[in-house]
């Protein structure tokens, strides 16, 4: 929990690094990153890797305002390669009625605050077990079954309606990985404006 808290506060500088004209290009996107938020690829042999699920620039288009509190989210995770999901954790008390790779999560009495256009909604431990050093990739998909057909989604706590906001992968493509271990970085597709602004915090 302490590490996850550090990641939250590490995101506080994000708005200072994002040009306003570029904000709409990466609204309501979900990506997977390493602990320092500076990379979506890593390398190594058998080891446990912790990755973070980050919603960037959550925005309620219908109401024309940024989202301040997230009450839950849903996404599917497709893993290709030799790996095992050991655990999934959330920053606040939560209920996941899905699985470790099919997240249907509602937060409890405390919701997740959006800090300067970004929110860490989960962290996952993956044990990479390929002794030959082959690639492992993670691709984000709509949950099964989805609340919004063909989309991932999250809940805006302050929306007077159902609060469901469509959520897209940072790759812009349900078939393109967003995180990889021991793989060519070029196979990991991301929205460049989103990823560059996250990396910029650590330059």
The main sheet comes to: 13 strands, mixed
Q: What characteristic shape results from the CA principal axes?
A: globular
Total of helices: 2
Rounded to the nearest angstrom, the radius of gyration is 16 Å
Write down the overall mean pLDDT.
Answer: 82
Q: Strand content of the residues, in percent?
A: 35-45%
In helices, the fraction of residues equals under 10%
Q: What is the CATH C level class, in words?
A: Mainly Beta
CATH topology description: Immunoglobulin-like
Termini separation: 25 Å
| Structural class estimated from helices and strands | mainly beta
* Tally of strands: 15
CATH architecture: Sandwich
Q: List low-pLDDT spans.
A: 1-23
Overall structural domain count: 1
What is the ordering of alpha helices and beta strands?
Answer: HEEEEEEEEEEEEEEEH
What does it look like?
By secondary structure, the chain is mainly beta. It has a single domain (2-200), classed as Immunoglobulin-like (Sandwich), CATH 2.60.40.680. Helices cover 9% and strands 40% of the residues. The protein is built from two helices and 15 strands. It has helices at 2-10, 192-200; strands at residues 29-33, 41-42, 47-56, 59-60, 65-66, 69-80, 83-89, 94-96, 102-107, 112-113, 118-128, 136-141, 152-156, 164-169, 179-181. Strands 1, 2, 3, 6, 7, 8, 9, 10, 11, 12, 13, 14 and 15 form a 13-stranded mixed sheet that branches. The chain has a two-stranded antiparallel sheet with strand order 4-5. The longest helix has 9 residues, at 2-10. It is globular and about 50 Å long.
């Amino acid at each position: 929990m302490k590490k996850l808290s550090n990641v939250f506060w590490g995101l506080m500088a994000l708005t200072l690094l994002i040009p306003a004209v570029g904000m709409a290009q990466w609204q309501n996107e979900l990506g997977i990153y390493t602990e320092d938020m500076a990379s979506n690829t890593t390398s190594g042999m058998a080891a446990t890797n912790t990755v973070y699920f980050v919603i960037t620039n959550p925005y309620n288009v219908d109401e024309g305002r940024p989202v301040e509190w997230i009450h839950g989210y849903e996404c599917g995770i497709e893993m290709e390669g030799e790996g095992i999901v050991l655990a999934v954790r959330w920053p606040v008390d939560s209920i996941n009625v899905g699985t470790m790779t099919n997240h249907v999560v509602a937060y409890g009495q405390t919701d997740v605050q959006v800090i300067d256009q970004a929110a860490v909604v989960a962290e996952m431990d993956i044990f990479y077990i390929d002794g030959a050093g082959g690639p492992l990739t993670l691709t984000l998909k709509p949950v099964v079954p989805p609340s919004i057909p063909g989309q991932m989604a999250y809940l805006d706590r302050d929306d007077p309606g159902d609060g469901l906001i469509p959520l897209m992968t940072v790759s812009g493509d349900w078939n393109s990985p967003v995180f990889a271990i021991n793989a060519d970085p070029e196979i990991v597709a991301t929205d460049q404006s989103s990823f560059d602004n996250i990396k910029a915090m650590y330059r």
